[in-house]
Amino acid sequence: MIGTVCWLLLLAGGLGIELVARLGRTNAATLVRTCDLIAVRVFGRLMLLLFWAFVGVHLFTRYTLPGH
Amino acid sequence: MKRVVVLALAGVLYAWWASGVAPFTALAYVLVAVATAAFVVSYAMLGALSAQRSDVSRYYRTRSGDTRFKSWAPWLVALTCAVTLEIVGLALGGRSATVPTVSTMLDHLLIYHWSRGVLYFLWLGVGGWSVVRLARHVRSGDPR
Description:
The structure holds 2 protein chains of 2 kinds. Helix content of chain A is 72%, strand content 0%.
C-alpha cells in the first residue's frame, strides 16, 4: 500500500513539474525539452530508442498478474 | 496534416488489434517487433542514428533551448525516486503488495482490453511523434 501511494505521489510530482514548466513560472524544463537535451548526442538518442523499445516489449508481450 | 491523421488512425487500429493479442505468444512479440523496427528504420533513415549528421544534433540542441542542470534537475530527482522505489520493489520479490514495482502497478491497467489499447497507442504515439517531428525538420530544414 505504501509503495502504491509513493508511486502515485511520484506520478503527481511528475505532472506537477510538467505543469509548472509549461506555465513558465520557473525555469524547469518540460519532459520533452529534457528528452531533447538527452537526444543531442547519438548515444542519447540510442538510449531513448532502446528505452522506448524496452517499454513496449516489457508491457505488451508479458504479464505478471496471476489469474488474468 | 492529412498524413498525420492517417498515421494516427492506423496507430489506433494497430494498437487495438495488438493489445488484444495474448501475452507470451509469438504474435505478441512479432507485433511489438514490427512496430519497433518500423520506427527504428524511419529514425535511422532520417539520419538520427548517424554521428555524421550534425544538423540532427543541432536540431535537438535548438529544441532543448537553454536547458541547464537547474532546469532538468527536478526530472533527475523524480527519476532517482522512481529507480529507488523500483529497486525496493524488486528486492521485496517484485510482486509485493506493500511496495509494488512499476510493472506490477501497470499490469493492473493492462487487465482490460481498452486500457491496454490506450497504453499501446500511447507507446506507438511517443515513437511515431518523435519520427514525425524529426521528419518535418529534415524536410523543411527549419532548426526548430
